[in-house]
Structure to design on (216 residues):
């Protein structure tokens, strides 16, 4: 088996010691230990481990924020979350932060070894229950995105035009002058846009215009 260097991050000394023993007995090398997120970012940057084994709840900077910061500094860093939390919000935030693996502390040591080995090869191993939760979360996000797209498709060509001008920071008077229409007509268009997109301010409208590519 290839020797894999691991940085262990957990705020409990006994947990770190236990993980070190399990990993080293499996032929891996623990090149560092961190007890909080800030230390994890520092050691990950300096030691460049093959895999970072990251807890979530720690004093100061938590594991998800630490993962996010590590990935900003070193995009190819490999982070595996090891936690007691199986709630969807933690799983999804960890994946968004850049973690490649997510394992519960209640699982068997051999599963931990398998997840780390897979992560070192660029593969993501998730427990069936975790994978199911992740797929459900992404499915819900896709539904929300599809709903937004449907709302946008309901806009008329004139409303899309007004929307593009909003994104450029133009006032109602400036939009009216550009389109040779009255201020009142612009306000009517804005009301229709807000209603169709289920938003209530110009900033949200501008964001939508940018997402839809109406402005560069």
């Amino acid at each position: 088996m290839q020797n894999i260097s691991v940085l262990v991050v957990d705020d409990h000394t006994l947990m770190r010691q236990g993980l070190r023993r399990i990993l080293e007995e499996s032929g891996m090398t623990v090149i560092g230990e961190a007890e909080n997120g800030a230390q994890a970012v520092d050691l990950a940057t300096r030691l460049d481990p093959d895999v970072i084994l990251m807890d979530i709840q720690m004093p100061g900077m938590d594991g998800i924020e630490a993962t996010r910061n590590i990935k900003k500094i070193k995009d190819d860093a490999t982070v595996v979350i090891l936690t007691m939390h199986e709630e969807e919000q933690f799983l999804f935030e960890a994946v968004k932060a850049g973690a490649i693996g997510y394992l519960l502390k209640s699982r068997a040591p051999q599963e931990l070894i398998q997840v780390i080995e897979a992560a070192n090869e660029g593969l993501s191993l998730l427990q069936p229950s975790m994978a199911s939760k992740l797929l459900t979360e992404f499915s819900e996000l896709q539904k929300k995105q599809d709903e937004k797209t449907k709302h946008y498709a309901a806009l008329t060509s004139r409303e899309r035009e007004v929307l593009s001008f909003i994104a450029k920071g133009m006032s109602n008077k400036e939009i009216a002058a550009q389109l040779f229409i009255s201020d009142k007509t612009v306000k009517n268009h804005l009301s229709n846009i807000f209603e169709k997109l289920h938003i209530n301010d110009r900033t949200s409208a501008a964001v939508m215009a940018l997402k839809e590519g109406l402005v560069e």
